[in-house]
From TrEMBL:
GO cellular component, one term: bacterial nucleoid
Gene3D superfamilies the record matches: Nucleoid-associated protein YbaB-like domain
Gene Ontology molecular-function annotations: DNA binding
Pfam families: YbaB_DNA_bd
Protein known as: Nucleoid-associated protein EL17_16745
The UniProt record lists the keyword Coiled coil: yes
Chain coiled-coil ranges: 4-31
Amino acid sequence: MFDFMNIMNKVKEAQAKMKETQAKLVHLTAEGESGGGMVKVIVNGHRKVLDMQLDETLINPDDKDMLKDLIVAATNKAFEAIEVKIKEEMKNATDGMMPNIPGMDLGNMFS
């Protein structure tokens, strides 16, 4: 028989675990780079830019557009990388807590 109360308790437990994991995401970081490593951007699991490193040879007032393009590319790569890490952390937080219900992805439930 379907145990609704047990499922609800498991959902509450998963929600609490995911909330706890989300708080820890501030310490999770990812780096993106462009221009062969001349531009590096580091972001955290709360989707905030933490640091940016620019090769000094790129700082040329006559070539602002290229620098902007490289910064945008590195930032986007960093955000793509952190999304993968966030999903993995959230998946690990709830692994084995809920039955496998098709179409129910708890990893995306609270992000």
